[in-house]
Amino acid sequence: MRMALVGGGGAGFIGKVHATAATMDNDAVLVAGAFSSRPEKSKASADLFRVDPSRAYGSWRELLDVESRLPEDERVHFVSVATPNFTHCEIACEAMKAGFHVVCDKPMTISLDDADRMVETAEHTGRVFALTHNYSGYPLMRQAKAMIAAGELGDIIAVRATYVQGWMHGMEPDQQQDRGAWKSDPDKNGRAGSLGDVGTHAFHLASYITGLEPEKLMSQMSSYSGHHELDDYGHAMIQFSQGATGCITWSQVTHGRLNDLSIEVDGTKAALTWRQEEPNQLCVKALGQPTRVYERDPGAAYLSAAATDVCRIPGGHPEAFLEAFANVYRNAYEDMRTVNAGGTLDRRASVYPSVYEGRAGVRFMSRCLDSAEADSRWQSW
Amino acid sequence: MRMALVGGGGAGFIGKVHATAATMDNDAVLVAGAFSSRPEKSKASADLFRVDPSRAYGSWRELLDVESRLPEDERVHFVSVATPNFTHCEIACEAMKAGFHVVCDKPMTISLDDADRMVETAEHTGRVFALTHNYSGYPLMRQAKAMIAAGELGDIIAVRATYVQGWMHGMEPDQQQDRGAWKSDPDKNGRAGSLGDVGTHAFHLASYITGLEPEKLMSQMSSYSGHHELDDYGHAMIQFSQGATGCITWSQVTHGRLNDLSIEVDGTKAALTWRQEEPNQLCVKALGQPTRVYERDPGAAYLSAAATDVCRIPGGHPEAFLEAFANVYRNAYEDMRTVNAGGTLDRRASVYPSVYEGRAGVRFMSRCLDSAEADSRWQSW
Amino acid sequence: MRMALVGGGGAGFIGKVHATAATMDNDAVLVAGAFSSRPEKSKASADLFRVDPSRAYGSWRELLDVESRLPEDERVHFVSVATPNFTHCEIACEAMKAGFHVVCDKPMTISLDDADRMVETAEHTGRVFALTHNYSGYPLMRQAKAMIAAGELGDIIAVRATYVQGWMHGMEPDQQQDRGAWKSDPDKNGRAGSLGDVGTHAFHLASYITGLEPEKLMSQMSSYSGHHELDDYGHAMIQFSQGATGCITWSQVTHGRLNDLSIEVDGTKAALTWRQEEPNQLCVKALGQPTRVYERDPGAAYLSAAATDVCRIPGGHPEAFLEAFANVYRNAYEDMRTVNAGGTLDRRASVYPSVYEGRAGVRFMSRCLDSAEADSRWQSW
Amino acid sequence: MRMALVGGGGAGFIGKVHATAATMDNDAVLVAGAFSSRPEKSKASADLFRVDPSRAYGSWRELLDVESRLPEDERVHFVSVATPNFTHCEIACEAMKAGFHVVCDKPMTISLDDADRMVETAEHTGRVFALTHNYSGYPLMRQAKAMIAAGELGDIIAVRATYVQGWMHGMEPDQQQDRGAWKSDPDKNGRAGSLGDVGTHAFHLASYITGLEPEKLMSQMSSYSGHHELDDYGHAMIQFSQGATGCITWSQVTHGRLNDLSIEVDGTKAALTWRQEEPNQLCVKALGQPTRVYERDPGAAYLSAAATDVCRIPGGHPEAFLEAFANVYRNAYEDMRTVNAGGTLDRRASVYPSVYEGRAGVRFMSRCLDSAEADSRWQSW
């Protein structure tokens, strides 16, 4: 596959992550980019990304325009969008309309209207749309999803997902963030702070592995760091349609925590726990039995194919963040190939986060914000 | 000290825990008991507790009556109450009125009126009243409390305390609990299920180490096990007066969890985490620094005296539940000796949980139940 | 049971550990002691141990003499020996000859001749002799022993036991140890340094749970701390009669380690690992299966009775060092009662370490020292 | 850089690992290969490795011959050797003589004579030679090396490195290994079994981070799996010139262990521990201080540049095996560029394992085997 990257030229690391993950299996080549909204900076980034300068475009519009007119065996197959959240919608929609598949960073966008527009555009154009809720790419999260789908945990009664970081304590009161200054700007990023940055990951992971859908939720959130008005700490309590209880916790002001996403799922037959910073183990517990620790291991017969299919190397040779991120790409490529070959895309069954999961994430943010502004009252989903 | 035990003759383990913990330092002797509400069973338990049969009383009233008339150098100094929660108030109050100090199991009682009565009785009689929120007896929880009091974490912005167990899954739908059948009986135990059993422990620990006081709270709770109407799973979100956010989670339906109480405190300078099942380590984290793991170690100069004073053996020789429980007794004995010697009791400064903490726990239960019944609305503290 | 303690009046903590452990289950009372080799110090310790001053003797000889002439229902049943190693033999033998059972600290003694004499005296007098290799008292070590005996691990092919501490780095070059100055004195303690202090524990645990017997061994040891000539770091490699390989590692110069005893056993069907500082979990691993983590839990049907019999409180309520130590006493009491009631003592089948295990430990030290002095050549067992 | 891969077409995973790691940073492209010793299989693998079929050669000799005659801007810059160990020497030497840099799998070769020849060839040709002792590529192993070099641990007194796996239990007695059947064939692989496969990794890591050089060593090894005559379990004890003690343990018959390489280093000021399966944390311990857990984190000021330079993504976003492997390539590329630009190669100072470390590993195997055959007597280095 030939890849174009929009964004990635700034101080952030996520552009490089996209480039590395997308090409890890030697299944794609990054050949074009609009790496920055400033043309000269975009050009300057070409070398960093080892892209031919002639295909380092001055804007994403130019990229779409020029690439779509290249011969079919030259032009890119898909566009990865790693720009500020408030720009995702327009870029992704235009890219799909121009015939390109899209891989988009999360949260998908910042308003429900935009989210609806993206869903419609994806459906209308028939293009693949993959959202990089990368944590769902970890083999043992695939295993968790498969186990729950197979009923191994019984009925799910509770989910607790917690995503805590602490880097905001490193900012001076009047400091601009090196990466993502737009994140603190409500005009650009919307009303969600850490809720959008990390809370949506936790919500997605909970939804992804359990398949539960909220019926109503309420939220309390706070701003402790003093850098902006947006939330940097919060909880959401969820009542799922199926009867289960959910609690989502997010923070970017928990001192010393790096990227501590963890999830616990309780069922009527068994329960499981997993932690992103130690991603190669999944704990499964049941009353009266020894705790079972599942290892990411492509040779383990006790794992489902959903898990082993996305392992690259043997058990005990740990895989981590980049490999999980690459799995989202790998799975999206499968669908891109299907579509490119004229096949049918079953978007609802996609193993990677699709445009529907993206919309659910935007709704989660929206409902949390509504609740927080309404004295934490329950909001219907 | 001479000890009398009320309760402990049933299938539960807590009576034996009281007896072992109270005498661990060879600082007290169990010499009398009313081990059961059934006289013959109480007598039969005398041997188990190695108490002279003549002092195994048929009822707690008989115990108080006979013991209070014994010569001063024979009669017990204090009464430990390990009976069903709904009986605590009357036993403890009568014991204090009869001149005995009291060590009482938690939750202190099941109604706010009773809690007020216990506070008044303690204040009026001047007797020591210690509540066995035993987890506060762990040396590293004393360390956490001391560090926070000394400002080492800066201002506290958030507390998350979670107490999950899974034993309820072991019960058949129509099964009576071996231990604590009264726990599922609202007529006896009041409206709180797991909230009272484990939720109050989590709330107490959060309050104990941070010193924070709730301004308002709200709660969502559920009953998943099907054994009774009472809650077996729940969350409470707290807004503390000092501005911090709290989240208390409790469960007795999380498969395979044994007694998993953990606590995390976030401050503006550092954060800490601790887990009861690995009680000899406390993690302290601060942005940009290596995680520091504090060990329970009486020889560690980096620990406060509050922690090292309640260690019995050198670091690396782990101490655990019984030793922590014994620390509540040890500290209560210090106050008992002070009072017995005519000294003044500073109940507000007690290092062990006092009658005021007991009342706060009852209020926590009450406010959570009110909120749950009011569609999870905020309740003023 | 009535207990007498010899030793314990010094700066060390082990005397207090014996007193606490022996009485934890309220199954014994400490009523007499010769707490120090200095009579006035022994008397002064009576209060600390809450022993009647009239039974705080000026010497162990006086203790044996006076106690043996007390009426049967007053005199002590057994003597615990917590004195420097080089004194164990004489005290223990005289105590047994005087009719008392003996609980003795480890290593049992410092020479093979003495060890033989202790075996002979125990056999001749028919007294119970228990050695406090306390780590064998942990419920999950009992579980390990039971699993291996039942063949659950298949044939044992390898054992690795490592016991590392670091406290020696806290001593100044010319400093006397607060506790155990005699430990560095070859005239008193024999040739073994850390080998005797911690190495024998590791060797015992390996032997205890596997039942393996050495055929030959070799050792390399060093003295890094500069405080004395004796070893403070070493390895022993063992060839067991049954074909298995052993490696025992000991150190008291590993910076920052507190009391880190761990053991790993490899079998042809499964393998296990355990670590003393986290004693409530035992890991069992087998190729192609999830790791199973066994919890100390008296209610766990997957554990053997050998393990659950020595648990005091439910799973998740951690037990630790003192409780394990108390289990050695508890099991020794069972044999004492059997003997006192005229029954037969099956010393070879004892669940607690007996005089034979004591002799094996002395032989282990002796063979290691011989090998170290012979350029690490193999020594026959 | 343009890369050629020799080997990788078999059932093993290491060829794919080389291809992925070498290109992870988009710093190299795999353009040619001799993927198998069977020409048709080599051709068939071209697609798997996404290499143009015209450059999938039928033999490594053909590869060297044809590639060396291609124009300079087409021909490969380096050859990666991922073939059976006994073939490394000839391939690597011929490749260097043909002007190519070499990245070679470990152990470097199977005899000391061959090792000498490889050293001479590297020195004579001036080509870069990198050995993929990939565990030295982990950022926190770079950190450990830097800390020890800077004296932060004081003088090193002991090193314990253990590498245990259990996969051999999965083989039937008469089964051929899917991957690496040659490994059990003494005619091909020499006398070392697991010693070469994993023992050399442990030895290298110990040498790499401490800089210690053996003075003498002795070894005991066994064959428990019954598949071959070669060792599958062993220990080596090392006396280092600088006075430190080493113990290297290796196994491929420890049930349930996947790839459990761990290392512990004791110094006179501090000690450290690290485990490959949790590679993002390094524990540093010192008496009287809390344990410090260092995180792989490019933003951590407490880490040395040696560590942060080889991080790709922020702390808490775990990196793992492939990234570490890629770091060996990344560092080798730096030297390749230097040489290609006419600069001087300081092979003795290389941060990646060079031909000298390769020779040391072969010597380690040789001395261990000599000792094992001589009743475990010490062998001079």
Using brief descriptors, characterize the structure shown:
homotetramer, 381 residues, alpha/beta, Rossmann fold, Dihydrodipicolinate Reductase, domain 2, 2 domains, nine-stranded mixed sheet, 11 helices, globular
Instruction: List the total number of helices of chain A.
Output: 11
* Oligomerization state: homotetramer
Q: Distance between termini of chain A? A: 38 Å
For the largest beta-sheet of chain A, the strand count, sense and barrel status come to: 9 strands, mixed
Range of helix content of chain A: 25-40%
Query: What gyration radius of chain A follows from the Cα positions, in whole Å?
Result: 20 Å
Number of domains of chain A: 2
**Strand proportion of chain A:** 15-25%
Question: Structural class of the secondary structure composition of chain A?
Answer: alpha/beta
Considering residues with a beta carbon less than 8 A from a beta carbon on another chain, report the largest interface and each chain's count: A-B, 44 and 44 residues
H and E order of chain A: EHEHHEHEHEHEHHEEEEEEEHHHE
Principal-axes geometry of chain A comes out as globular
Side by side, the strands of the main sheet of chain A go 13-12-11-10-6-9-8-7-14
Query: What is the correct CATH architecture of the largest domain in chain A?
Result: 2-Layer Sandwich
- CATH fold node name of the largest domain in chain A: Dihydrodipicolinate Reductase, domain 2
Number of strands of chain A: 14
Full CATH superfamily name of the largest domain in chain A: Dihydrodipicolinate Reductase, domain 2
Mean pLDDT of chain A: 95
CATH class bucket of the largest domain in chain A: Alpha Beta
